[in-house]
Amino acid sequence: MVRPEKPEGTVTLFDVKFGSNNFWSSAEDRSYRGEMELSIDNGIIKIINVLSVEEYLYGVVPAEMPTNWPQEALKAQAVAARSETVAKLGRHRSDGFDLCAEVHCQVYSGVEKETELGNMAVDSTRGMILEYNSKAVDAIYSSNCGGHTQDNIFGDKEAVAYFTGIEDMDETRKPVFPLSPFEMESWLKDPPAGIYCNIPEYSKLSGFRWIRIYSAQQLRKMIDNFSAVGEIKRIVVTRRNPSGHVDKLKIVGLDSSCVIEKELNIRKVLGNLRSSMFKVETKYGKNHAPKDFIFYGGGWGHGVGMCQAGSCGMSKLGKSYQEILRHYFSRAHLKKIY
Ligand SMILES: [Zn+2]
Ligand SMILES: [Zn+2]
């Protein structure tokens, strides 16, 4: 798969279907670098795009980060995406290729997504990956960590070792995590200065801090789909990770109660919350019955690994891509593999 030369010209495929089984699935014409390998498999034409990792990354990096972001952040993104690519190479060996072009591996849609600045970030970090125990790191990232990245909540034991949650700010300004419930409240409502991912001019304004309000009826409808507990009386956070992300939640209803666990599950059940870093407040109406539930939240995404908004903030403060990667992946090290 690693071929250094850049071939002339591209190949265009018409009506390429993408986003299988997603609401955004569609089809479009796409042009690709490299070569096309066609084979017939059970009456279906299988098309494999053969190209170098670097050419592949030209298409991947701009899909993951806006390329008008500072160059050092883009370089950090390029290294993270390259590490992820190398870690995942051969994932589809039994299908006869290395990687698929969907979210399952990394979204890749050919040359149209490429930009000059994105290609520059790839070229200037050529062959550079993150390694841990002599193996490429599957360098996970998310849009905005809310100010503290999460310990690894997905991976195997080895991955747990290299993703340790960190305060996303300068060493000298660190608040002491884990935070008490009172500290959590001011962390979310009045965050301290100097958090790298608090950059509304780049990251979406609602990415770093957000508020979601559900009426008691709206919330009950959502919870009913998970477990019918009757009229909602209370929401109790029963386990919070050291980073402030909620890991276990108890919903107390008039008839019974239920427990919701795990980051993605919690976010889904509660109407696709932006993250699991939140605090809930209840507003009471007549007869002291809950009227509204207000979620004060921080961050967008799972918060594991590199914080993309934070890498942009660090870059703006003059940090290099090496410093950015060391900050988020402190136990991995940079290595040029070609
Ligand atoms: Zn795949
Ligand atoms: Zn962050």
What does this structure look like?
The protein is α+β, with helices and mostly antiparallel strands. The protein folds into two domains: about 10-140, no CATH class; about 145-305, no CATH class. It is built from ten helices and 15 strands. The strands form six sheets. It has a three-stranded antiparallel beta sheet. Strands 8-13-12 form a three-stranded antiparallel beta sheet. A hairpin with a 2-residue loop joins strand 3 (about 35-40) and strand 4 (about 45-50). Helix 1 (about 55-65) crosses helix 2 (about 70-90) and helix 2 (about 70-90) packs across helix 3 (about 115-125). It binds zinc ion (2 copies). One zinc ion (ZN) binds next to loops.
Question: What is this structure, in a nutshell?
Answer:
The protein contains 10 helices and 15 strands. The two termini are 13 Å apart.
Output the strand order for the largest sheet.
6-5-15
Number of strands: 15
| Outline type | globular
Domain count: the total is 2
Structural class designation: alpha+beta
Percentage beta strand: 25-35%
Q: Largest sheet, if any?
A: 3 strands, antiparallel
Helical segment count = 10
Give the distance, in angstroms, between the N- and C-terminal Cα atoms.
13 Å
